[in-house]
């Protein structure tokens, strides 16, 4: 038996950040382009742009900015902090659930 979960951040009932945006932000870091990040994630540019803009509007901050080189894109300091905090929280939650699962004897296949 295994515990399964999904976690995301909301504001006023609307998604701000979750696993999908985590993956998108990681892809932007790697590809330095929203277009390339969307392609890497097998999603349309329009869908990626819509999610990015929705998160920016709901948070009231910019999450990406031009890197000044050939239309490159990078995460803002606020976006990097959000990404880091989300991933740390997810890791701590996963660690807690693994310990709890083991304590309850649910960790056996």
- The overall pLDDT average reads 92
- SSE run: EEHHHEEH
Secondary-structure class: alpha+beta
* Strand segment tally: 4
What's the name of the CATH homologous superfamily?
A: Winged helix-like DNA-binding domain superfamily/Winged helix DNA-binding domain
> What Rg, in angstroms, do the CA atoms define?
16 Å
What is the strand content? 5-15%
Spatial strand sequence of the major β-sheet? 1-2
Low-confidence stretches: none
What's the CATH architecture? Orthogonal Bundle
Helix share of residues? 55-70%
Shape: elongated
The CATH C-level name is Mainly Alpha
CATH topology: Arc Repressor Mutant, subunit A
Number of helices: 4
In total, the number of domains comes to: 1
What is the CA–CA distance across the termini? 6 Å
Largest sheet: 2 strands, antiparallel
What does this structure look like?
This protein is an alpha+beta fold and about 110 residues long. The chain has a single domain (about 10-105), classed as Winged helix-like DNA-binding domain superfamily/Winged helix DNA-binding domain (Arc Repressor Mutant, subunit A). About 55% of the residues lie in helices and about 15% in strands. The protein contains 4 helices and 4 strands. The protein has helices at about 20-30, 35-40, 45-60, 75-105, and strands at about 10, 15-20, 65, 75. Strands 1-2 form a two-stranded antiparallel sheet. It has a two-stranded antiparallel ribbon with strand order 3-4. A hairpin with a 6-residue loop joins strand 3 and strand 4 (about 75). Helix 1 crosses helix 2 (about 35-40) and helix 2 packs across helix 3 (about 45-60). The radius of gyration is 16 Å and the shape is elongated. The N and C termini lie close together (about 5 Å). The mean pLDDT is about 90.
